[in-house]
Write a structure and sequence with these properties.
The protein is of the alpha+beta class and 204 residues long. 43% of the residues lie in helices and 19% in strands. The protein is built from ten helices and five strands; from the N terminus they run E-E-E-H-E-E-H-H-H-H-H-H-H-H-H.
């Protein structure tokens, strides 16, 4: 099992990034909570990782905090929640927001996430409630990733890249476009646009 990687960030196209570790390129999928912490392309980054082995692929997931990886591992134990949906949940809500949904039986906020229907939301609340105390006891540990350099240069079209990233997270193209249209994107990075778009969805 690969549990930790440190190397040079070669590219970041949410929800995927490429990490050069001593000449070996690792393709990693990560939630937006991790992308918000990433340094500029070309800088060193360290991530906690979780490897998912399938018949047709080995998929590596990366997290800037060990507590986020623990939440991911807990989510994929819930019946009907796979790695992709767990990644979407961690991208669409912060750990605090998700915890509040579980504690308050707030299914409406959960079903706003793509791929989460009413039954899945109810199952998440039932199965995660008993696991929250253990998650809360886990300290918010994390690897310091070049503080102050979170977004980095983005030579492409941040708005279009944000829409593409939201689609990759499970949002329908029309919904992703609408979410991004509600964000004033001047001088903002792709990650910033996604963060504001997701925050706008939560506040509805």
């Amino acid at each position: 099992m690969i549990g930790f990687l440190r190397g040079k960030l070669l590219s970041k196209n949410p929800p995927q990034l490429l990490l050069d570790v001593h000449g070996v390129g690792y393709e990693i999928e990560a939630p937006m909570t991790t992308f918000y912490d990433l340094p500029m392309v070309g800088d060193e980054v360290a991530l906690y990782t979780h490897l998912v082995v399938r018949d047709d692929a080995h998929i590596l997931f990366g997290f800037s905090k060990e507590s986020d990886r623990l939440m991911f591992r807990t989510l994929i134990k819930v019946n009907g929640v796979g790695p992709k949906l767990a990644l979407t949940i961690l991208s669409g809500q912060s750990a605090e927001e998700f915890r509040r949904c579980i504690e308050d039986n707030d299914t409406q906020s959960l079903i706003r996430l793509p791929g989460v229907g009413k039954k899945t939301a109810e199952r998440l609340i039932v199965e995660m409630r008993d696991r929250l105390p253990a998650l809360s006891e886990n300290s918010e540990t994390g690897i310091k990733i070049n503080p102050g350099q979170s977004s980095g240069a983005n030579p492409g079209n941040p708005r279009q890249e944000a829409i593409t990233a939201l689609c990759a997270l499970g949002y329908k193209p029309a919904d992703a476009s609408k979410m991004v249209q509600g964000v004033t994107s001047e001088d903002k990075s792709c990650e910033d646009i996604i963060r504001l778009a997701l925050q706008g969805t939560i506040k509805r």
